[in-house]
Structure formats: structure tokens, C-alpha cells
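[09:14] KT: can someone run the structure on this one? pasting the chain below
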Amino acid sequence: MKLTTLQVLLGATSAAAQFPEGHPWVAPGPDDFRGPCPMLNTLANHGFLPHDGRDITKEVTVNAVASALNFEPALGEVLFENALVANPEPNATFFTLRTDAAFGNNHIFNQTVFDETRVYWTGPILDANMLANSKIARQLSSKAFNPNYTFTATMDAFSYGEVGAPVVAFGDVDAVTVNRTLVEYFFQNERLPSELGWSVRTDPVTLGDILRITQVLTNATSLITTAEPVISTRRRDLHAGIRLRNIIGRK
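[09:31] RB: done, C-alpha cells below
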């Protein structure tokens, strides 16, 4: 089974030694394929995935996320099997740092959109509220100005995985926080921020980690205020359309 592009939630956090040898960053060439997912592009730039961005198999994907990001193998398999191939709805709005497809190539980094997003990152440590605010603002901007605006329930579920990716990749999965400098470096360069002191986390990323972070971010996007924290009762799909019934079925 092969996929040309996987749009999955990838990540890991900091911990021990230098990044594994043998995986230097190499910029993509003119014939290399890169998609709208910054982390997949980054793994290809470092050679954990094929540098040309093509013919990505299940085995290659599972090995890549395990060795580069310390995903447990079972999670890598679930992510691969439930992944979306690129973006099935070309005009859809995601929480990404690219322009909407209606306005140009959404496979390349867009500094203007990035600056629009990080206005809401108001401190050196990003928390769930800052990430949620930037998601809401990005979606509102698209709805206001994109004549082809599309945002389905599937895209909504997908977007929470995108918002949580920097936390899972570079932050504190328990506190749901992440260093802003690491996130900016990663997005602007599509490069793992090992030069800034980041290294692969020692504890594997589990399905439970991703589900919990997704729920925290879902709660943070609520605009309703009460005396108690707002707890959403809606169940969210994981990034790339992984559904809870699929997860339960694998236990």
C-alpha cells in the first residue's frame, strides 16, 4: 500500500541527546514534491521520509515517525491507515501557515499568513488559549475573504490536530504548552529545531496523548464564558480523520 502524501499529526517533544546522526537537513530540489503539511515536509528534508516526497509506504512512515519523533509503532500504523491523501477539499481552510488554495499555492510557506497567525501568540510560551485564538482568527479571516470558503465537520476535526501538532512535536504534552521560538523556527524553515536545543523526547508519543491534547484545544476554542471551565461534550476525530470507533476497534 502506498500514499504519495500523508496529512497526519506528527510530533515529539524535547529530552536527551543531539538529533540522530545521518539525518542532516537538505533543502528540497526543484523535482522534489512537498505538500501542505509542514512536519511531513520537514521529515522529508531530514531524510526520514524519501527526500523526493514520493512513494511513501506504511513501513517507511511507521519507521520515520518512530525514529524521528518517537511515536509508538501502533500509533504510526493507525495514522498511516487513516491518513488523508493531501487535501481532499482544495478550497478548504485549515490551521496552516499557507494561503487558502483560492489565493494561490497552499503547499508553500506564506509569511503574511504566518504573521497574521502569530499576532495571537502573545507570550514566549504558547498555551492552549493562544493556539486556539490563532485558529479561530485564521478561520474567520478565511471565511471573510475566501469566496470558496469550505469548512466541513471533517475539516474541523482535522484542524485540531494541526493546532496541537507543535505541542506534541516540541512542547510539554502534560501542560499543553510549547516554546514560541521553537515553533517559529520549525514553521519558517521546515526544519527540526535541534540547533535551538530541541531533541527527541524519551517517552513515546501515544494515542492517549493526542486525544487529550485535542480535547484541551477543543475546549479552548469555545467563546462561551461561565463560572466553571467550559468542557466540550463533542468527540473529535484525530488529525487526518482518525475516528474514535477505529481507535476503539484496535484495542
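[09:33] KT: thanks! The chain has nine helices and six strands.
[09:34] RB: yep, looked fine to me
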